[in-house]
């Protein structure tokens, strides 16, 4: 996250401006580390001072990396398109974000599907129980599987009557 922010902020900045950002990040890193050691939060918006300290440490390191890249490549201004390492990190982060979104969507779909499922314990009198057990044994199924197949085939007519058309239970 810190890398993405620095890449966006550094676009077209020159070395003196990047140096100022490094200095500011160093100050913020020290302040947030001190606040973390003392305990408490900086503001009502950031309640975890350790996380804030980690973020500023990462930003400080990234600003220094950007400056070192600019000096090594003799750039007058930073251009994210020329930063191969930064571009690779950005692509990796985009893939992680896509995967996380896909996983969240799959989880939501599973939860929605589970919400439609019905799990129950059913107590039947002796006669229907024997009949279900006999049918299940003949079909090589568990009694619950036969009941599930019965339920899948329920037909409700316009007048509200419920029926199950004839069928043979299958594996």
Kindly describe this structure.
- The chain has a two-stranded antiparallel sheet.
- A hairpin with a 5-residue loop joins strand 1 (155-156) and strand 2 (162-163).
- Helices cover 67% and strands 2% of the residues.
- The protein contains 6 helices and 2 strands; from the N terminus they run H-H-H-H-H-H-E-E.
- The protein is an all-alpha fold and 171 residues long.
- The protein is elongated and about 90 Å long.
Give the helix proportion (percent range).
55-70%
Write the element-wise H/E pattern from the N-terminal end onward.
Answer: HHHHHHEE
Please list the strands of the largest sheet in the order they lie side by side. Answer: 1-2
Question: Which segments are poorly predicted (pLDDT under 50) over 5 or more consecutive residues?
Answer: none
Q: Mind telling me the C-alpha Rg?
A: 32 Å
| Assembly level | single chain
Biggest β-sheet strands, sense, barrel: 2 strands, antiparallel
The count of strands amounts to 2
- What average pLDDT do the residues reach? 89
Strand fraction equals under 5%
Total of DSSP H or I helical runs spanning 4+ residues: 6
Which structural class should the secondary elements be placed in?
mainly alpha
The backbone outline, from C-alpha atoms, is elongated
| N-C termini distance | 51 Å
């Amino acid at each position: 996250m810190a890398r993405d922010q620095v890449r966006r902020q550094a676009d077209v900045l020159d070395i003196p401006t990047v140096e100022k950002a490094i200095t500011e990040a160093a100050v913020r890193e020290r302040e947030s580390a001190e606040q973390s050691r003392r305990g408490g939060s900086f503001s009502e918006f950031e309640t975890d001072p350790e996380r804030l300290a980690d973020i500023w440490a990462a930003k400080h390191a990234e600003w220094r990396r950007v400056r070192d890249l600019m000096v090594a490549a003799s750039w007058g201004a930073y251009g994210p398109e020329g930063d191969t390492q930064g571009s690779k990190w950005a692509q990796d982060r985009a893939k992680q974000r896509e995967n996380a979104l896909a996983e969240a969507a799959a989880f939501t779909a599973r939860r929605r599907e589970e919400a439609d499922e019905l799990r129950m314990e059913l107590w039947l009198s002796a006669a229907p129980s024997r009949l279900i057990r006999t049918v299940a044994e003949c079909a090589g199924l568990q009694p619950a599987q036969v009941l599930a197949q019965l339920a899948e085939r329920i037909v409700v007519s316009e007048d509200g009557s419920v029926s199950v058309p004839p069928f043979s239970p299958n594996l």
